Amino acid sequence: MGEVASLDPQDYVWGFSGTPAPMRQHYLPSGVETYPYAWVDASQARALSLLSPVLAQCEEAHVMVTVKRDLFGTGRLVQVEDLSLGPTGCQPTTYNTAENTVIFYAGLHECGSVLQMTPDFLVYSISLHYKPTPSSHSVIVRTSPVDVPIECHYPRRNNVSSNAIKPTWIPFASTISAEEKLRFSLHLMNEDWSTERASNGYQLGEVMYIQAQVIAENHTPLRLFVDSCVATLSPEADSNPRYPIIDYKGCLVDGRFDSNSTFSMPRFRDDVLQFTVDVFRFSKDPRDLIYITCHLKVAAATQGPDAENKACSFYPARNSWVPVEGTTDICSCCETKHCVRTTGQGSSHLDQWGRRLGRDVAAKLDKSKEANVDVMLGPILILDSYMTSRTPDNRNKLVLSAEHGFFQFPWMLLGIILIALTTSLALTTLGIFCTRKRPYNSS
Fold first, then answer.
1. How far apart are the first and last CA of the chain?
2. At a CB cut-off of 8 Å and minimum separation 6, what does 194 contact?
């Protein structure tokens, strides 16, 4: 159970001091790296009672806040309904009439609390709010609103529960709980896989080198798999038209017909999976940007590959599917298109992620989503000079340029106008001269 924290009379000055007392951490145990502790700040409420009117106690999964109704030490009791906890306005759970105290008891993730992570601690922050309301027969109030920030600090690298299991290595599920989320990524790589590709543009006939990776520190070894990949013309993976690149839980189906797309073998690390895809475009759509969305997942590296956890490529020369690791029979479902784990195969360690002991750092998070995520790669520019020249927009631009190209040069247009004006002036002058000369000849 966590330590109790309160307002220290030496830290908070009664009255209207120009400078609030510095904030301090209260009742911090000597073994701070091992035990959770609470911290309360009333520096914004300098008129609060010096008799510790707010106490906070941090437990494994809850925080208990005890508030004295004589909040300001004046003998005037605040109304219970004027007190609330957190931005969602949680109401008190119990009221002790004998001691004139109000108690809030809430889960660490309740009442709008905020979770922050530091290198050593998980910090849950929430505030106690006092908002005085005038009585029904009055238009005045005699106290000021008060916000009292409260924090619960939990060490990230130790168990909070008093009866927690103490393994000799950091277990898979608990490490996910402590470190919050795995980090999945997709990258376009250069041909030798050494660095990320600088450009996202490709010509038809080229090859895309795609690398999937998961980053997870302090875990038991993990193996990454790509369940599926689909190419679309918009960022929405379920939009149409769509083209499957990888399907059926790890079958690189793009390599099944007129393509050399394959997984790279062997892996150089279990947490990385690389594969190549021959560049393509959608035949009935002139758009040149595509998006590739892949469903990535991890399994314990000690778990053997099976029909649901595999990476299979098709080799036309052999007319067969070949796995990156494991026996060839796990790829047979790539032809039947029905890939499920057979009876008797062991369940993944991920199946047990939902079973948690004590306080869970991320109780609101669905652990299955941490092990299975969709990652989008794109936009990827596909350059096809033939299609580009034949798109309606480009044809219209070419025709417009041919018919009205001189309008692209304003000085040419101005010269034509000046020539026309000069010619018109010369003809006018000649006409006047001829008109005046005719009467003279007739006389």
1. 132
2. none
Cβ burial of 404 (10 Å; 0-12, 13-18, 19+) is: exposed
To which residue do tokens 């690389």 refer? 274
Asked if 73 and 146 count as a contact pair (C-beta separation under 8 A), the reply is no
What distance in Å separates the CA atoms of residue 85 and residue 124, rounded to the nearest whole number? 13
CB 90 within 8 A of CB 107: no
Is 402 contained in some domain? no
Tally of helices (H runs) and strands (E runs) in the chain: 6, 21
Contact 288, 383 (CB under 8 A): yes
Q: Is residue 196 part of a domain?
A: yes
Tell me, yes or no, whether 148 lies in a domain.
yes
239-272: pLDDT as tens digits: 999 999 999 999 999 999 888 999 999 999 999 9
Q: Which residues are within 8 A (CB) of 64 and not within 5 positions of it... i.e. 6 or more apart?
A: 56, 57, 103, 104, 105
What is the domain range of residue 315? 182-339+369-383
Q: What is the CATH number of the domain that holds 220?
A: 2.60.40.4100
CATH of the domain at 110: 2.60.40.3210
* Residue 74 pLDDT exceeds 80: no
DSSP 51-119: S--EEEEE-SSEEEEEEES-TTSSSPPPPGGGEEETTTTBPPSEEETTTTEEEEEEETTSTT-EEEE-S
- Torsion angle, CA of 381/386/391/395, rounded to 10 degrees? 130
| Total domains in the fold of the chain | 2
Residues 229 and 374 in one domain: yes
Same domain, 193 and 301: yes
Least confident of 56-70, 227-241, 348-362, 399-413: 348-362
Contact 260, 278 (CB under 8 A): yes
C-beta of residue 303 within 8 angstroms of C-beta of residue 348: yes
Place of tokens 């008190």: 92
